[in-house]
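tl;dr need the bound structure. longer version: we got a ligand (inosinic acid) that a collaborator sent over and nobodys looked at where it sits. i said id run it. heres the input, straight from their email, havent touched it
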Amino acid sequence: MATLIVVGSQWGDEGKGKIVDLLAQEAQIVVRFQGGSNAGHTVITKRGTYVFHLVPSGILYRGKLCMLGNGVVIDPAGLIQELDHLIERGVKIGRNLIISPRAHLIMPYHKALDAVSEEAKGSRRIGTTGRGIGPAYADKMARVGIRIGDLLQPDVFRQKVEENLVAMNRHLHHVYQADRFSAEKICHEYLGYADRLRPYVADVSALLDRAIAQGRHILFEGAQGTHLDIDFGTYPYVTSSNATAGGACTGTGVGPTKIDGVIGVTKAYTTRVGEGPFPTELTDEMGEALKTRGQEFGATTGRQRRCGWLDSVLLRYAVRVNGLTSLAVTKLDVLDGQSELKICTGYRHRGKLYKEMPADLTVLRECTPVYERLPGWSMPTTGITGYKQLPMQAKRYLARIEELAACPISMISTGSRREDVIVLHHPLTGGRMRSLKRHSA
Ligand code: IMP
């Protein structure tokens, strides 16, 4: 398998950073295809903890090419800050970073609009990360977005900023009584970023096409998760991009026939940041225990994550809409020490049983989850690297996930360190997948 998409199967924060970091050892190229600095991918190595917002985590390895595709929205100040921080810590950044000229820019007025529109929504707020993501994608779709390529041409950039500010300032001021922006100030700030980013700008789609023809191993790194996808997530409590596998094609310029596999990352339980329905949410001690043991605080905003039992309805849906070829289950060790575990297998709402993800948010908000109970395990699993060493109950739990999701598990993460992982099947270099039952035999 030479080209592999990595997506989140839940509401983001599944541990994609760690899985991408691990798979990147065997890849030559890692490319981000959507989202922006709303993402926070954490990688823990012997040299310390790295939190990435925009740069693909593959940058930590020498000789890997990292790309930001056209589907990504870029806050240039944030990107430069992230690059400087990596350089300070000894990471080499030069010809190993490529940015698509078609990627859209996050402008200061996008961040302002994100903040004031959230505030105005009151109890109907989305709980965004406040990074200007929604307004930047809205401008892209309204065909008034400003792209990285425009930033490299001062006259074009200036004209677009001036044109956009006519409507944007009116909107900010009249609807939200917010401050107006000055085109001069924005141009001064942003054109200063242009020279710094210019050396990295190149045609991502063309480079990927050549690399695929040469048989290079390529990872497409998704941000957020399936249920935050603009089309398939719990709309409107979603992000503004396609976080599902299709986004990898439209967000990099690679055709679907060139993709060999899709791995979905899922926690062994469920979490969600921000507002929106969450059928298996736990507001009791168990929820608190998951939050504490799993250190469930957002890498981008520091907000507490809501925690709950694993939901196989969400997972099965992720398998379907992404065409997942395997699953990576993370944070298994967070469940250590529980006498009993639950997995949601359906939703009951007004006498009807839902086995598939409903589009209607009312059902998700009001439903009672149907649970299957499984025995927990007392033995610590942190750091286990061999499947055979897992307690029998953990194997049963994982096998049941595989069965309910109808997708084989290829990797199991058992701790926060890079090396805390069980690789049952390497999604890039492994041969034929085997089910967990065969691994137990
Ligand atoms: P936005 O992407 O900042 O517009 O936020 C929209 C929704 O997506 C909010 O509920 C955020 O909390 C959520 N969100 C955005 N990025 C992430 C992420 O990387 N992990 C988890 N949730 C996210």
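gonna send this back to them w/ a short note. Residues 3-73+206-440 form a domain with the Adenylosuccinate Synthetase; Chain A, domain 3 fold (CATH 3.90.170.10).
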